[in-house]
Task: inverse folding
């Protein structure tokens, strides 16, 4: 009432229309709040303590006489304002008594009993099916109730500017909370620091609000103007005045969209009235008088009686990092336009005081994980109905032979470009597939069939059609998966659904077929029956995003809202599962076993199985950051980048002092070519742990991939603190002479030096390559200090190599070997063994690449040290025929032994083949290499060495230059393209874990790790034996997902 009186006696009220609000009905309140909660609000005499706590009616939201009447007026005022906006009779409606943004579906919280904001937004959305609402909240406390209400909605964008700090109510509102499901990137939180001033707040506000409005294109804006941001507020810590709040409202007003203004927090009544009155006056181009006019509330404005509010709190300058905004806004691809009419309206504030109480602890306001507070009104929109009618009409035209008319009808319906998952897009692609089949265009028809099956893997019509129009290789793989899924669905029973093993099996197949509706529904139902409503809603939402009218899913969602415990499953006619049964939670020992089995699954390369187990563990281990980090790793390995980032963010939120999740977020971003953002996360990881070897490597590697070579070199100079070991100045590092000396030093650091004479090597570097060491022991000290940073040294070596004008590393290695190698280094072998080579031949995607593969094979045939070449051909007709025709033309054809294999050559296949052939091959060294590798005369080196015993030799490759016709060597300890071993070198366990193709990313370093795990000695003779790489064409046959996942290890060069 103070605001109303101040406006009245200041002469502002005459410029406004004052409208008495209607009381909200109980039915109105039930649009969001549960009936049981509303009944609790009616109990004004107070509830028993336990029941009062259940509904949040304690502490700062205690019961009071007239509470229920108050709730009806607060909600009614905001609903009246919303109705006025919808009537288009006004363009601004104000209810300074509203803005109760903490109230939940069935709980009071933070002085808020009914959420009038949610009710008003719900009304706006219901009046127009295409309407969208932007909710802006500038209260110092996060609007948690509003965020939860619309977290899954694509039609409401919630934007909150607030304080987020440990112990500050309500403890929510992190910038990582961006919405889920259809509401992904429709929620944006902007945490701000204490003491922020008018100018600083406006700078951030304009920076964010304008692009959000431009991208989201709302129909209406609802703005909550809590004034606990004022400098004088007893519970606030910001430093705003009424001027700053007014500025923000004026920014929003300039968008010329229908605007609903609501109040909110504000715990100094006089200053709240001052601020609300100042904003109201500005909206009608008026100003408040300098002094508060004489009226009934005048004494409460003492002692200065001014209408102004001064900033009094100090603030250290601090710019917020807002790079997340660009990522969020990039996902908005919507547009909307509307006309604007000028008019204003003011709703009279409810005559009730502000209630101030003790703020509850975070534990009291934290929502129980099994409680569901999100109202989603699932329904089939008019657009959905129209799309279905288009489908029926188009298919009817097609069946009657009017193919062009059918195509035109489909073109008039919704857009299915991009990663569209709607039910309409399934139907559209299926009709197009049948249309192209009738036109005899099988390849195009198969493309559309694949699109249907990508979205709906059990689509019967598409499965049948795929047998006609798609290649057999595609059909056989899909059919096997379909049969397994169908058997799983057919086996669904009450007993099985209660077991964790059955849930895991459904999660496993959903990982492989992430858009299979029956699987998604059943997984949601199984989480539903276990009381894990958040997980249930996640999977139900996935179904409804694909098929908005899916009846079983809609029924299950409705049972969530009504707290029913009867989820419906896809098969077996199950309509009630456990109305009289309580399922036991996952026992601690079962949870431990689940995690152990995850490790076992990863060791066998079964990432989908690992994902299923991790998801179950996460459901019952929600506060374990390591678990979420591992979940993110598996999601990343499967190419689910957004899910990976979400898991890593969760891990980081649970334990901010872990560097690993931050490093992993950056790795995902780098994979997505978001290098600048990735650098920021790598930097954050190093701030948490400055000695984290992985983060050091990744940051330098990212700089190198961005072609910031000089920055890479300077970064490692600083991070290794090289000034402690070398008499160089940082400014001299990039000079040519210095770079040549650094290249020699880094090349030496990539050598195997554990038992070497570092004093001798340091002397060579100092006298021959002008490396200025600080002391006689500098090299040894540097090695000891950087023992675990071999990956970073490798990146620095690549950066120096890319400069293109540094000394050839071969000179360094030759001089070091000559001066410092053991005198007993070379023991001659009399019975020189034969070398048998295993290589795969394949058909390349370009002529240039095919020429390189063919040339490598010809050169190996001509190598006198290779006695036999075992060519393993993949079992495809084109490969077999082409190689048969090509091999007949080769001189030395008799050296070849052709073996047909079922798939691309893996290390396991190669090792198994060696074991099978061992009984026929005595005194033999086996070589395995990629198809584009050939050997020269240096292969004699290995033939003259002592016999290999429990030892594998790896060969870092040399590079052939097509322009210079020369081969050159640059040390890389992360890539070995050829391997030498004997038949007795490997234990059986190595074969089990090495079942991945040669040439995959990380395949070499992964194999090194496997071998050393099982005590097989691995040495790198890449400098002595030249495995020469022929690959200057741009063709690449792998992607990021063609990766050998698991532990890996770099392998230093053996020169001494």
Result:
């Amino acid at each position: 009432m103070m605001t109303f009186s101040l406006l009245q006696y200041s002469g502002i009220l005459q410029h406004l229309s004052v409208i008495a609000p209607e009381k909200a009905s109980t039915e109105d309140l039930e649009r969001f709040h549960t009936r049981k909660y509303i009944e609790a609000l009616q109990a004004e005499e107070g509830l028993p303590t336990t029941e009062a706590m259940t509904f949040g009616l304690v502490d700062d939201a205690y019961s009071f006489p007239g509470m229920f009447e108050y709730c009806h007026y607060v909600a009614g005022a905001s609903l009246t304002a919303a109705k006025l906006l919808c009537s288009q009779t006004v363009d601004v409606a104000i209810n300074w008594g509203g803005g109760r943004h903490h109230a939940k579906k069935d709980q009071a919280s933070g002085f808020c009993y009914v959420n009038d904001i949610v009710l008003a937004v719900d009304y706006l959305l219901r009046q127009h099916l295409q309407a969208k609402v932007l909710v802006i909240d500038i209260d110092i406390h996060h609007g948690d109730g509003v965020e939860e209400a619309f977290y899954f909605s694509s039609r409401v964008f919630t934007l909150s500017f607030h304080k987020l700090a440990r112990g500050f109510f309500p403890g929510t509102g992190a910038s990582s909370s961006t919405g889920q499901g259809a509401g992904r990137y429709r929620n944006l939180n902007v945490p701000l620091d204490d003491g922020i001033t008018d100018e600083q707040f406006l700078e951030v506000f304009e920076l964010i609000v304008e692009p959000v409005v431009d991208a989201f294109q709302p129909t209406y804006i609802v703005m909550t103007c809590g004034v606990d941001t004022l400098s004088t507020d007893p519970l606030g810590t910001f430093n705003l005045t009424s001027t700053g709040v007014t500025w923000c409202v004026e920014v929003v007003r300039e968008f010329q969209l229908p605007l609903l203004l609501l109040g909110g927090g504000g715990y100094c009544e006089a200053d709240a009235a001052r601020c609300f009155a100042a904003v109201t006056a500005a909206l009608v181009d008026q100003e408040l008088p300098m002094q508060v006019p004489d009226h009934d509330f005048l004494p409460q404005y003492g002692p200065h009686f001014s209408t102004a509010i001064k900033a009094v709190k100090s603030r250290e300058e601090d710019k917020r990092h807002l790079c997340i905004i660009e990522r969020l806004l990039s996902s908005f691809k919507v547009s909307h336009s509307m006309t604007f009419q000028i008019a204003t309206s003011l709703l009279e504030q409810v005559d009730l005081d502000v209630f101030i109480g003790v703020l509850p602890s975070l534990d009291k306001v934290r929502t129980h994980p099994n409680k569901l507070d999100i109202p989603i009104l699932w329904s089939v929109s008019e657009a959905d109905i129209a799309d279905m009618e288009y489908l029926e009409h188009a298919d009817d035209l097609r069946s009657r032979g009017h193919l062009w008319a059918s195509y035109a009808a489909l073109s008039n319906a919704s857009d299915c470009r991009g990663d569209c998952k709607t039910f309409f897009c399934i139907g559209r692609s299926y009709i197009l597939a049948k249309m192209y089949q009738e036109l005899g265009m099988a390849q195009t028809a198969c493309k559309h069939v694949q699109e249907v099956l990508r979205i709906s893997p059990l689509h019967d019509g598409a499965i049948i059609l795929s047998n006609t129009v798609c290649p057999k290789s595609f059909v056989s793989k899909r059919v096997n998966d379909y049969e397994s899924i169908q058997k799983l669905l057919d086996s669904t029973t009450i007993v099985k659904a209660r077991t964790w093993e059955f849930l895991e099996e459904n999660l496993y197949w959903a990982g492989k077929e992430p858009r299979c509706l029956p699987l998604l529904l059943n997984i949601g139902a199984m989480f539903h029956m276990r009381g894990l409503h958040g997980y249930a809603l996640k999977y139900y939402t996935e179904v409804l995003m694909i098929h908005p009218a899916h009846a079983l899913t809609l029924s299950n969602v409705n049972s969530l809202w009504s707290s029913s415990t009867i989820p419906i499953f896809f098969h077996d006619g199950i309509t009630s599962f456990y109305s009289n049964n309580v399922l036991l939670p996952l026992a601690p020992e079962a949870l431990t076993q689940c995690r152990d089995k995850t490790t076992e699954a990863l060791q066998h390369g079964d990432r989908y199985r690992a994902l299923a187990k991790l998801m179950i563990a996460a459901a019952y281990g929600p506060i374990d950051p390591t678990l979420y980090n591992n979940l993110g790793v598996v999601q990343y390995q499967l190419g689910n980048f957004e899910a990976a980032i979400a898991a890593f963010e969760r891990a980081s939120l649970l334990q901010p002092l872990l560097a690993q999740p931050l490093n992993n977020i950056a790795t995902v971003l780098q994979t997505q070519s978001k290098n600048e953002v990735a650098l920021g996360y790598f930097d954050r990881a190093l701030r948490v742990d400055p000695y984290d070897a992985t983060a050091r490597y990744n940051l330098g590697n990212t700089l190198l991939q961005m072609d910031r070579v000089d920055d890479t070199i300077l970064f490692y100079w600083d991070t290794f603190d090289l000034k402690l070991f070398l008499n160089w100045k940082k400014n001299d590092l990039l000079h040519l002479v210095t770079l040549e000396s650094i290249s020699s030093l880094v090349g030496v650091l990539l050598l195997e030096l554990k038992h070497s004479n570092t004093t001798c090597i340091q002397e060579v570097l100092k006298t021959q390559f002008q490396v200025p060491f600080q002391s006689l022991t500098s090299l040894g000290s540097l090695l000891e200090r950087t023992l675990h940073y071999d990956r970073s040294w490798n990146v620095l070596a690549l950066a120096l190599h890319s400069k293109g004008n540094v000394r050839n590393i071969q000179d360094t290695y030759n001089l070091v070997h000559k001066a410092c190698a053991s005198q007993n280094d070379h023991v001659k072998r009399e019975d020189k063994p034969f070398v048998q080579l295993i290589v795969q031949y394949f058909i390349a995607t370009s002529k240039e690449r095919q020429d390189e593969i063919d040339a490598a094979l010809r050169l190996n045939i001509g190598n006198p040290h290779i006695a036999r070449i075992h060519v393993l051909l993949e079992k495809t007709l084109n490969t077999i025929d082409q190689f048969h025709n090509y091999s007949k033309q080769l001189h030395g054809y008799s050296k070849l032994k052709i073996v047909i294999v079922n798939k691309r050559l893996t290390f396991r296949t190669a090792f198994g083949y060696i074991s099978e052939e061992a009984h026929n091959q005595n005194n033999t060294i086996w070589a395995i290499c990629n198809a584009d590798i050939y050997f020269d005369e240096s292969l004699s080196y290995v033939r003259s060495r002592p016999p290999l015993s429990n030892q594998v030799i790896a060969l870092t490759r040399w590079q052939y230059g097509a322009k210079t016709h020369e081969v050159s060597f640059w040390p890389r300890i992360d890539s070995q393209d050829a391997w030498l071993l004997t038949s007795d070198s490997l234990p059986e366990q190595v074969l089990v874990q090495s079942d991945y193709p040669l040439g995959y990313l990380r395949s070499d370093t992964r194999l090194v790790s496997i071998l050393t795990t099982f005590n097989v000695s691995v040495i790198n003779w890449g400098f002595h034996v030249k495995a020469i790489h022929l690959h200057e064409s741009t063709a690449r046959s792998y992607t990021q997902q063609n990766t050998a996942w698991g532990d890996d290890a770099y392998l230093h060069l053996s020169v001494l």
User: Anything to note?
Assistant: The two ends are 89 Å apart (CA to CA).
